[in-house]
User: Fold Sulfotransferase from Esox lucius.
Amino acid sequence: MSAFHHNSPTDRDIRRVLQKLLVMLSLGVICVSVFYFLTGCCESDLTEYTISNRPAREFLLPGWYHERNGTFYKDVVTVHDEDGYQGAGERSTKTPDLVTNNSGTDWTATRRLPQALIIGVKKGGTRALLEFLRLHPDIRALGSEPHFFDRHYARGLNWYRSMMPKALDGQVVIEKTPRYFVTMETPGRVHSMSRDVKLIVVVRDPVTRAISDYTQIISKTPNIPAFETLAFKNSTNGEIDDLWSPLWIGLYAQHLERWLAWFPLAQIHLVSGEGLISDPAGELGKVQDFLGLQRIVTDKHFYFNKTKGFPCLKKPEGSSKPHCLGKTKGRIHAPIDPDVIQRLREFYRPHNRRFYQMAGQDFGWQ
Assistant:
């Protein structure tokens, strides 16, 4: 009776049904797998960049957005500490190759040659200008000074391009090397790269600039001669040594003339170093106009630091400190004899007038 029960047709039928269901289920899993595999092959490989690849120190800037196709997205900035600037660095060069917005549109970020250069002048405020410009979501700026056109030109444009941060279509790539403005070969070399490149020069009262330059020099080599000794060929008759670098750089008309032989004045924008301190938003507004960008960096981003004596960037969300230029900026200038300063002002006066005429702008230096 027990054997008959185990071999009944009913049990065999149940086993056959279960076997068929198992086979059908297996076939279904295989079909679904094949379907997803085939559809997956048709899509681009976008998955290699994930949120875990982002640098750890990213934060959203309150009220600062990136516009794409009429839609604004929060702009993410990565914070670095480089070149003496506390907390505000360039957007990371680890930026993903592919960026996807909420609408599903992809933009490919690539390295390309700069469309704009900050070419000078040393101790004029170029670092401050670069850091302020970095606030703009459509500017991608190289933090270090590559010195390509004055020191490393033999390395070629491919090397230069490899130094640039990756940028999306519509973003402006920019680098700064203040030595470019005074280097003889640089204008022609820049023109060979691009005749349409936009050039930015930050100028400052040449006497104040020279003293600032000397102050930086003695901070690194304290045993050099006094400013007065280096500034004059002959202290008795007051003959100025205009070949001494801190004074030679301030001959702006001489240097601008060399650039105007290669580029029209419309492609050269002059920034007032004094204005960059007293009205940073105003100067930044004009620079953004010159670069063809929307005025996103405004007075709401700045406050004046009385201790340092120049503007700082207001503290963004996620950061514990405001952004101020580091200790190497805003040094107390070396004390210079007032008679020496007066002689230098007289020396520069005709050079400044010529510079104003060439630039079509009076900077009001004494």
